[in-house]
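Consider the subject:
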Amino acid sequence: MKTENSPIKRNPALVRFSKDHHHGLLLVWKIREGIRRGVAGERIGEYALFFFDKELVPHFADEEKNLFTKLPAGNILRVKAEADHVEMRRMAEGFREGKCGKEDLENFAQLLEGHIRFEERQLFNHLQDNLSEAELEQIENTGLHGSCAADEAWHDEFWKSNT
């Protein structure tokens, strides 16, 4: 019996996007953990921006090119997903400008988490239920941008300590 918390059977074409989403949820946790530990917003914002540039920008481009275009321009799921990307880009620009207060960071974390949950629970289910096998195969064979390597290049693990 499938419950609300049962794992979703993901079509192989969408697995790479779901893996990226896992890393995005870790970013959300790190932001919130930094806030909880009283870490300076600038430190958290610096990491969030680094992760955004290294991981989310290519992920967004991959989704926008290979997933969203599979839906009509006015489709409500596409419109919401694209609007979320625009808003997260705007928020990242705020981090560049030094807008890294706790509220700014939490708003970004909240939007990113909600966006990921929306894509996983609604958008991806819609795509895998409505696209042809040929369309799904095309998605599976395009747009691979690699795995999350941002943390390997990052030096300040603020989410682990208060110092």
